[in-house]
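This part of the workshop introduces the protein records we will be handling. The question running through the whole workshop is how a given chain folds. To make this concrete, we reproduce a full record directly below:
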Amino acid sequence: MFPKPKPFLQPNTYAYESEPMVKPTGFREYDARWLFGKEINLMGVQALGMGLGTLIAEMGRPQEIVTGHDFRGYSASIKYALIGGLMAAGCKVHDIGLAVTPMAYFAQFDLDVPCVAMVTASHNDNGWTGVKMGAHRPLTFGPDEMSRLKEIVLGARFASGAGSYVFHENYPARYIADLTERVRLKRKLKVVVACGNGTAGAFAPQVMEAIGCEVIPLDTELDHTFPKYNPNPEDMEMLHAIRDAVLQHKADLGFGFDGDGDRCGVVDDTGEEIFADKVGVMLARDMSATTPDAQFVVDVKSTGLFHTDPVLQAQGAKTEYWKTGHSYMKRRTNELKALAGFEKSGHFFFNTPPGRGYDDGLVSAIAICEMLDHAPGKSMSDLKNALPKTWSSPTMSPHCDDEKKYGVIDAVVKHFEAAQANGDEVAGQPIRDLVTVNGVRVTCADGSWGLVRASSNKPELVVVVESPVSEARMHEMFEAVNVVLRQHPEVGAYNQTI
């Protein structure tokens, strides 16, 4: 399907630039992101590879790793620099070529390789690059591993060894076969498949056709300049394009895949976007109908329906709210052996069946199609409208400097913990429960809730409120949360409010 790559620079031949450049802020909580050329150069990427290989050995893991790259114009050269560093540190590298991120995760299982380093900046603007890494399938690195990797790379404390390299020809065919051989829909669905010119366009239409869908492709041609909009299923521009295509073609639903294919957004047959947490409730209903005492994990930004939905309650489903972030959610879903984990950003984590515990937008799309197969005569909008109504805010992000945001959150958590201990009311109601695994999520007796947490990768806080009672109660929850935040002058203006 794709040509074999040309030979790359051998390890220890520092011919890229005279000095490595790696900006420290590129090491995030659970992956790495830099502006290529401004914050990292190819020699810096090679240093990153050496650091990753060193860390893998330090962790006592076999030095064998899968790598692939997305379709950005510079991603292949970045991958080969990374490979050079990995080999210099003693790793055996399995290169699967052009890939979506879940294909690299799949290859860990399919090739029986313990570690992964996928070169991608997901839906970030052109000019960004990054790496998603892991050493214990299906998990990816969290803050501890990323902090240690940063120490190794910035301190140039590298191990050395004699690595090796193998390129796996036509690897996407193995991934596509794995996704499609077990599924054949009974119901003929017409679906819009939108990829925003990102890497998923090389694979998503073929997969959806193979399971029995009639596919309407939308911006599936690969173009790393992203000429129309960034491939981000949370972006309204992408969702509106899907809406227009669904209505024009009278499709049953529309799917939007992000730049590296690990997230999926959904638009129903009426052209209305369904936010990922509500899609998660629908999938949880479907899955718990046939699995007694089904366990789910959702992130703290997600709807309260996972606790209050009468159908989930009747089916005995249990849900835990957990930290936002794909690595946190993946790890917790794995620890609890939950059926699935759902994150509001669109990262879904299905354990066997139908997945292997990692986030794959195509597995999510297939699960949604199977859900419709289990509901003959029902449309996507029917399933959506069957959910109890809630009033939810957008994700609001008041500015707060990185150096100050965690201190503010600590103070806010203590405020609500004291309120609960004293029996104080919030927004005129007693506190039903607090979740403090990631900031604080305070839920009132009537199910209305508010969340405040620190953004993982921006100098911002994250504020979300929801009420199952009324729009007025949603506004009251916002005011109750905002009054507490306004006690801290470090908190700036909101990007938007309700």
Remarks:
- The longest helix spans residues 402-422.
- The first strand starts at residue 32 and ends at 35.
- The chain has a mean pLDDT of 94.
- The two ends are 49 Å apart (CA to CA).
